[in-house]
Amino acid sequence: MAVTVVGSIAFDAVRTPFGERERMLGGSAVHFSLAASFFSDVRVVGPVGEDFGEPELAVLEARGVDTEDIERVAGGQTFFWRGHYDYDLNVAHTDETALNVFGEFQPKLSEPSRQADVVFLANIQPDLQREVREQCTGARLVALDSMNLWIQTARDSLVRTIAGVDCVLMNDAELRMLTERANLLQAARRVMEWGPRIVVAKQGEYGAALFSGDHFFALPAYPLETVLDPTGAGDSFAGGFLGYLAAHDLSEELEDDLLRRAMAYGTALASFNVEEFGTERVQRLTPDEVTERVAELQRFTTFVDAPVALRG
Amino acid sequence: MAVTVVGSIAFDAVRTPFGERERMLGGSAVHFSLAASFFSDVRVVGPVGEDFGEPELAVLEARGVDTEDIERVAGGQTFFWRGHYDYDLNVAHTDETALNVFGEFQPKLSEPSRQADVVFLANIQPDLQREVREQCTGARLVALDSMNLWIQTARDSLVRTIAGVDCVLMNDAELRMLTERANLLQAARRVMEWGPRIVVAKQGEYGAALFSGDHFFALPAYPLETVLDPTGAGDSFAGGFLGYLAAHDLSEELEDDLLRRAMAYGTALASFNVEEFGTERVQRLTPDEVTERVAELQRFTTFVDAPVALRG
C-alpha cells in the first residue's frame, strides 16, 4: 500500500538554544515522507526551485521515497523558512518566510500518486488541499493538517476541506481555535460533526490524543533529556501514524487497536525527529530503533490495576 | 495506615466561564483530605477562624477525616482566596488573597498526626513545611507541593525543605522554574539529586508524569467534556496518589507498579474535583465511581503492539 503526501519542500534556517543551521532540508512533506517511509511506499508531491539539488533529492531517495511528482520550477527558488525557538521549545518564532515557488503552486498529481490508498494533505492553503483531495479518487483514507494562519484567513475554505477528509491531525490549540471550543473533547466532537471520523490532537511535548467516534486514546510524548530542534515533529508524527496505517488493511472500518498502534509509531518517529536538527536524526534511523522505542513507550504508559478496598 | 496533611483550609470565591461561587469551602488541605479519605485514615492540620463553622467541619467529617488538629483561632478569620478563570482553565487568576489566621500559623501536630505513615506538606511557606516535616519522625513517606511564589521569594528554604522529603509533587512549569531546567526530564533529575526519590510533574489537562530513579510513567488526564472549576485539582490528585500509597505496604522500597496505580487513582480523583465547583462533586462521590474511572483510564491509555515489517 502507498501513501501520497502533498506539502512543502523547503530549506529551513533554524536557531534553538542548542545550536543553529543556516540552510538545511525541511518542509512538512519532507519530514512526513521520511517518517512514513519506514512503513510503506511514499510519493511526495510539491514544488522546488533550481536551488534544490541532487543532495536533497538523495536524502529522500535513500529512504525509497518516490520523488517523481516533485516539480522543479525553472528560474524559481525553493520555499524558505527561518525561525527560532527559545527555551520553551513548544513555541516556534517565525523570522522570515519566502514562499518562492510555493506561491504559484498548482498541485498536479501523477496517476500513481492519485491512486495511493492513503493521502496526507500537509499544512498548505486549504483550497489547494481540496484540489488535491478531489484528484485522489482512489484514496481510502485522507488526512489533513492545518494551522492558525488558515483558520484566521481562510476558515470557511478550511472547514469545507475538512468536511471531505477522513482524519484531521492538528495541534490542540489550533483545534480549539478552529472550533471555538476551549474544551478539547468538545473541539474534537465538533470536527467530527463536519465529516471526519478520526481526529488527532497533537500536544507537543505532552503527546497526542486520538478521538474516533466515541473512542478515546492518549499517549504522552517519549521522554527525552535532549531536544535540539522540534521543527517537523508534527509532520514526522503524521508520517509515522499514516505510514503505519497505510501498511495495514484499510478495507474494513479502521479498528481502534490499529489506530492506537499507529499513534505509538507516530509518537516514536516524532521523538527521533526532535533529537537533532532538521532531518539529521531520521536520516540515519534504523527499524530496530523504532521498534525499541515503541516497546519503551508501552512500558512508560502501562499500569495494571489491582483490587483496593475503597472507603464509602 | 494513616496520612496527615498540613495546608490551607479556606473559603474560596471562584468565577469561571461556567458559573461562580461567592464563598465555598476550599483550601489545599481540604481538597487533599477528601480525596485521600477514599483510601486511608486522614488527619488534617491547619488553622481556621471563627467564621469556620459546623457545616464546613461536617463536610470533612462526613468522609471520616479526623479534624482534631484543625486549630480554631479566637477572633480570627479563615484564609480567603478569590480568583477567576477565563476559557483557558489551566490558568488561575488571583484577584484577592487574605491570609488571615494563616499569617500567624505555627503548625502543632498532635501525637497521632506526627505518627502518620504518610505526610503531605501542601503548598505553604517552605519554612513551615520543614517544621512540620521535623515533627513527623515516624513518617515513611513525606511529600510536598509548592508554587512559583515560594520559588521566587524563598527558593533556598524550599530547596532545603525538598532535600528532606521523599516525594515532590509540583506543576511541571514550576518544576522547570525551580530547577532552571526547561527540559522536564532534566528538571526531575535535578530534584532527585537534592534528595527525593520520587517526582510527580502535574500537567493540568495533559495529565501527570512520574519519575522515580530511572523509571518513567505518564498518564493523560481523564477526558471531560465539561470542566466547571479546576480549583483544587492538584490537591485532589495528591490526595488520591498519597492516599492510595498510604493504604499499602510501604515497608519495602516503593514498587513501580504501586506508584503507577497511585497515579491512576490520583488522576481519577482530580477529574471528579473539576467536574463541579469546589468540593461539590467529591462530597457525593462513591467508591464505585472511582473504580470505574480508573478502569476507563486504563482503557484510554492501553495499546498492544503487533509485529510490523519496518523498512530499513
Please give a structural write-up.
2 copies of one chain form a homodimer. With 312 residues, chain A is of the alpha/beta class. Helix content of chain A is 38%, strand content 23%. Chain A has helices at residues 28-36, 54-62, 111-114, 126-135, 148-153, 155-163, 172-179, 184-194, 233-246, 256-275, 280-283, 287-301; strands at residues 2-6, 10-16, 19-26, 41-48, 70-72, 79-84, 93-98, 118-121, 141-144, 167-171, 198-202, 208-212, 215-219. In chain A, strands 5-4-1-8-9-10-11-12-13 form a 9-stranded mixed sheet, sandwiched between helices. Chain A is globular, with a radius of gyration of 19 Å. Chains A and B meet through helix 8, strand 13, helix 10 and helix 12 of A and helix 8, strand 13, helix 10 and helix 12 of B.
Topology:
The structure is a homodimer of 312-residue chains.
Chain A: E1 2-6, E2 10-16, E3 19-26, H1 28-36, E4 41-48, H2 54-62, E5 70-72, E6 79-84, E7 93-98, H3 111-114, E8 118-121, H4 126-135, E9 141-144, H5 148-153, H6 155-163, E10 167-171, H7 172-179, H8 184-194, E11 198-202, E12 208-212, E13 215-219, H9 233-246, H10 256-275, H11 280-283, H12 287-301
Parallel strand pairs in A: 1-4, 1-8, 2-6, 4-5, 8-9, 9-10, 10-11
Antiparallel strand pairs in A: 2-3, 6-7, 11-12, 12-13
